[in-house]
Write a structure and sequence with these properties.
This protein is an alpha/beta fold. The protein has helices at about 35-40, 45-50, 90-100, 115-120, 145-155, 160, 230-240, 255-265, 280-295; strands at about 20-25, 70-75, 80-85, 110, 140-145, 175-180, 190, 195-205, 210-215, 220-225, 230, 250, 270, 300, 305-310. It has a single domain (about 20-160, about 175-310), classed as Ribonuclease Z/Hydroxyacylglutathione hydrolase-like (Metallo-beta-lactamase, Chain A, 4-Layer Sandwich), CATH 3.60.15. The protein is built from nine helices and 15 strands.
Length: about 300
Amino acid sequence: MEIPRENGNSYEIDHDHHSSLIFLGTGCSSAVPNCMCLIQPSNPPCAVCSQSLSIPPELNPNYRCNTSLLIDYCNGDGEHKYILIDVGKTFREQVLRWFTHHKIPRVNSIILTHEHADAVLGLDDIRAIQPFSPTNDIAPTSIYLSQYAMESIEVKFPYLVQKKLKEGQEVRRVAQLEWKTIKEDCEETFVTSGLQFIPLPVMHGEDYVSLGFLFGEKSRVAYISDVSRFLPSTEHVISKSGAGQLDLLILDTLYRTLEAIKRICPKQALLVGMTHEFDHHKDNEFLAEWSRREGIPVQLAHDGLRVPIQL
């Protein structure tokens, strides 16, 4: 696996017979462009956000939806399973833009990192990618999340969690989901759509635990989208000096990112969660120099990027 080229959204490869990682979104909670930069532009205007007025999103790596990853897992029988990590506020836009571009026909299962708006507020739109049934008589999509996230979603989306209709309640079409709680523990693995995952609890602020995930046997991939501090047990699992070197680290840009990459020492890293303060081209020039100096290839990912990988 090589780090993606700067130009183009995917490698030239036969995706029908390979697994791949598709970056549906690489932006922060408010996404990019920042609306205030457009409705009350500064002088001079924000260089990153103003590009959205002149460059189509599919050609603009600085146009960023909420961070989300789609794992296109091709198993030993050549069958593809599609595993979605996080369903944020921009999910519908991501489906229209990138599911169609990459010919993604469905989602087999969903994993949630946490229950903040940028990770869950697209859950209602899951019904749009499920088979149509006016009576909701379809197989549910499995969705994996922590108990804390489950309790929050029961409040945010009671109609998606409700098991039975109340007496006299009319049937309305909603997303059909099968909720499966997982533990915030590196020792408690789970399997979905044929692929094993290890939860990676990290601090997202000092009073909140978010989950990353480690997956892949042929290539070890860690996905950590919301982190301010690594727990020692989690860092051990993903560090070269601990349980073994990662083939790919996908990491949030929120806090001391490059320091963490040096400690963890993956073979390569792609960054997500960027605000409008990150300019894709300029910051990747800086990261290219950093990569040469430190010996770890690192660059910003971008929406629509497809990375082939053996899992």
